[in-house]
Design brief:
The complex is a heterodimer. Chain A is an alpha+beta fold. In chain A, about 15% of the residues lie in helices and about 45% in strands. In chain A, the strands form six sheets. Chain A has a four-stranded antiparallel beta sheet with strand order 1-2-3-4. In chain A, strands 8, 9, 10 and 12 form a four-stranded antiparallel beta sheet that branches. A three-stranded antiparallel beta sheet of chain A has the order 6-7-11, with no helix packed on it. In chain A, strand 2 (about 105-115) and strand 3 (about 115-130) form a beta hairpin. In chain A, helix 2 (about 25-35) packs across helix 3 (about 40-50). Chain B folds into three domains: about 1-95, SoxY domain (Immunoglobulin-like); about 100-195, Immunoglobulin-like, CATH 2.60.40.1930; about 205-280, Immunoglobulin-like, CATH 2.60.40. In chain B, the strands form six sheets. In chain B, strands 1-7-6-3-4 form a five-stranded mixed beta sheet. In chain B, strands 9-15-14-11-12 form a five-stranded mixed beta sheet, with no helix packed on it. Chain B has a four-stranded antiparallel beta sheet with strand order 19-18-21-22, with no helix packed on it. Chain B is about 5% helix and about 55% strand. Chain B starts with a helix and ends with a strand. The chains are: A alpha+beta, B mainly beta. The interface of A and B includes residues 240, 272 and 278 of A. Strand 14 (about 275-285) of chain A pairs antiparallel with strand 19 (about 240-250) of chain B, so a sheet runs across the interface.
Chain lengths: ~375, ~280
């Protein structure tokens, strides 16, 4: 009996330690450290990136001799004030696409948490067997580099002189810009009512625009109020047209008798640059089977665009706006370097899309606007 | 509220007992000091209740009470009250606005399309140095100074403190100074006369290295005025690789963009709700 109690305590402690090791993912870590399967190699690399242990992730690459360490880190940590510099890898999904004895292809879907909301990135990664473990062969960056040069820009901007504190009380400010809603379409979605349309700046000065909407029921009392938030290009140059979208979650069209639209415009200082070209636009199906509008952004100016924001309007055969989608681009736009983008199109909308128009909004650290 | 209560109590006191007398001038001008003769004797309290405030001080009944100019800056009805040991006496007088010397000039709109009949409204409110609206008839001189032109002016009578004029915008775009003057005041506002929507928007294409330079003709409205720089022109190009769109601001009268074109392509142009010609390039 005297010996029995210590033995019992030792056995129970050992069992608890083993349980704790399993609970904390020790077994998984050990399995991953050995990376004896292609998807485990990718998971291991992504777990190290998630922990921002970039050196460990880089050290496990199959082709680290060909891959520049800083370029590899920039793929996940961002650069030039891009959206990824304000993001962290929240989680990821990994599944195999093709598997061989020495080589395999694994698809990874990375979910970033960013300053403007979630951002997904899908990558197909080549994995190679090295000895008894698998290692990721990171694609060598063959991206264009712009040689040092001077890009001439005929700089055009508007500054506003507002009334100052020293002015007499009777001094008036310059009038606000004239903007107009040129179309509005209410759409029933499975979980919401969505208002889409376009606004034009009819004035000869830039405008900071925001569109709001109030839904009224049969008794003309307000049932909901929302604004376009970031589903609009807020800064509109003269004669520029922007799509807008206003979402009313948990709402049915039958509940709505009337919609009261409200467009607000402020006179702001703005710059006409940078000019961003959107080329190779096409509606296609992505590797995950979703309908997307994809293309390339090309910064025609000499200044870096830190966070590009793509807004696309889709029209039916009558020229009516039937959907507006948007998406932030993870990479910064360097001058003259094309950067791909893609925004989702709901499948039921995609089949009615006749044409579309893409606008690029931008947020810059050194913005003159 | 407290001032009103004090004033009501004072009035009751004045009605209850009439002893000393106070004789202010019937009218005076804002910002001018006055002397108010009184009768009676002994120590007294002097109250001055005006449209923007009230004051109280100790005076000697029977002597002249001087009221400083800064106590009479607001135009309107004032009540002077003298309360001595034998009761209170009161008398009211009016302070009129001083000479017109300030203007509040409202010009609308700040930007107007060229050739808008009566499209510019110019309203002047006439004030004295103390921001009192000058109600008596005064001539206000309105002037228009177009850029590169000579000044044109006309007088309008301000009635009840307001004078106005409606103007038709010029046929030529550009800034115009609108002014109004009275006394030492001379207020100026700037109105931008702007071209209307683009008219006959046309593009042309030329080859530059591997790309095409797509360029508009000088963008003008239907009256021949240049559409302002910064106005956005949207180019759309459809070729074998898909669709390309780019919003380009007009600079130095034209909008231009270099586009890589693969094979045959169709290029269209628009500015706001105005569309231009269509171009076939490449092939």
């Amino acid at each position: 009996m005297k010996r029995g109690l210590p033995i019992f305590i030792v056995v129970v402690t050992a069992v608890l330690m083993v349980m704790a090791w399993f609970q904390s993912g020790g077994a998984e870590r050990r399995e991953m450290r050995s990376a004896n399967a292609p998807d485990q190699a990718v998971r291991l690399m992504l777990s190290q990136i998630q922990a921002r242990n970039f050196d460990a992730a880089y050290a496990r690459l199959a082709n680290k001799g060909d891959v520049d360490r800083n370029s590899f880190v920039r793929e996940f940590a961002g650069s030039y004030g891009s959206l990824l510099t304000y993001a962290s890898l929240e989680n990821y999904e990994v599944w195999g696409l093709h598997s061989g004895d020495q080589e395999a292809t694994v698809r990874a879907k990375l979910h970033y948490s960013t300053a403007v909301g979630p951002l997904d990135d899908v990558r197909d990664l080549k994995v190679e067997k090295a000895g008894d473990t698998w290692k990721v062969s990171w694609p060598v960056n063959t991206g264009q580099r712009l040689p040092p040069q001077v890009i001439p820009v005929n700089y055009l901007r508007w500054d506003v002189i507002q009334r100052g504190s020293g002015d007499d009380w009777g001094v008036q400010n310059v009038d606000s810009p004239q903007v107009r809603i040129i179309s509005m379409n209410a759409i029933q979605r499975p979980d919401s009512v969505v208002l889409v349309g376009e606004v034009v700046n009819e004035d000869s000065v830039p405008a900071y625009v925001n569109v709001g909407a109030t839904l009224l029921d049969a008794r003309e009392s307000e049932i909901a109020q929302e604004s376009s938030f970031d589903k609009i290009a807020h800064t509109l140059l003269p004669k520029q047209v922007t799509p807008y979208r206003i979402d009313f979650p948990n709402m049915r069209l039958e509940q709505i008798k009337k919609v009261r639209m409200d467009v607000k415009a402020l006179l702001v200082a703005a710059s006409a640059d940078p000019v961003i070209e959107v080329n190779q636009q096409k509606v296609e199906t992505d590797p995950l089977g979703k309908k997307i509008l994809s293309g390339q952004l090309l910064n025609q100016s000499g200044q870096i665009v830190n966070i590009p924001h793509v807004i696309a309007a889709y029209y039916d055969s009558n020229g009516k706006v039937i959907w507006v989608s948007d998406g932030y681009v993870a990479q910064a736009l360097l001058p003259q370097i094309p950067v791909p983008f893609a925004v989702d199109v709901p499948p039921d909308i995609a089949k009615n899309v006749q044409t579309y128009r893409v606008l690029v909004n931008h947020y810059d650290n050194n913005s003159q606007t | 509220m407290r001032t009103l209560s004090s004033f009501a109590i004072l009035l009751c006191a004045v009605l209850a007992a009439q002893g000393s007398e106070i004789r202010p001038p019937a009218q005076t001008t804002a910002g001018t000091a006055i002397t108010i003769p009184t009768s009676g004797s002994g120590d007294a309290d002097f109250y001055l209740v005006g449209p923007a405030g009230a004051s109280k001080r100790k005076v000697q009944a029977g002597s002249d009470i001087s009221v400083e100019s800064d106590q009479l800056e607001h135009a309107g009805r004032y009540v002077a009250i003298l309360c001595a040991s034998d009761g209170c006496a009161s008398s009211s007088f009016f302070v009129n606005a001083a000479a017109a010397n300030r203007l509040s000039l409202l010009v609308h709109p700040s930007r107007v399309p060229v050739g808008s009949a009566n499209g510019i409204s110019t309203v002047a409110f006439v004030f004295d140095n103390f921001h009192n609206l000058v109600l008596k008839t005064e001539p206000v001189k309105f002037s228009v100074l177009p850029k590169g032109g000579s000044e044109v002016s006309a007088d309008r009578e301000a009635k009840d403190g307001v004078a106005w004029v409606r103007l038709t915008s010029a046929k030529k775009e550009g800034p115009t100074k609108l002014g109004a003057a009275i006394g030492h005041a001379n207020e100026v506002r700037l109105v931008q006369q702007v071209a209307a929507d683009a008219c006959n928007l046309r593009i042309k294409a030329s080859r530059v290295k591997n790309n095409y330079l797509i360029e508009t003709d000088p963008v003008r409205d239907c009256s021949g005025n240049s559409v302002p720089d910064g106005t956005v022109v949207s180019f759309t190009m459809i070729d074998a690789e898909g669709k390309t769109t780019v919003d380009v601001p007009i600079k130095r009268g034209v909008a231009k963009i270099e586009m890589p074109i693969k094979g045959r392509a169709r290029v269209t142009v628009a500015s706001g709700v105005v569309t231009g010609n269509e171009l076939e390039v490449g092939g």
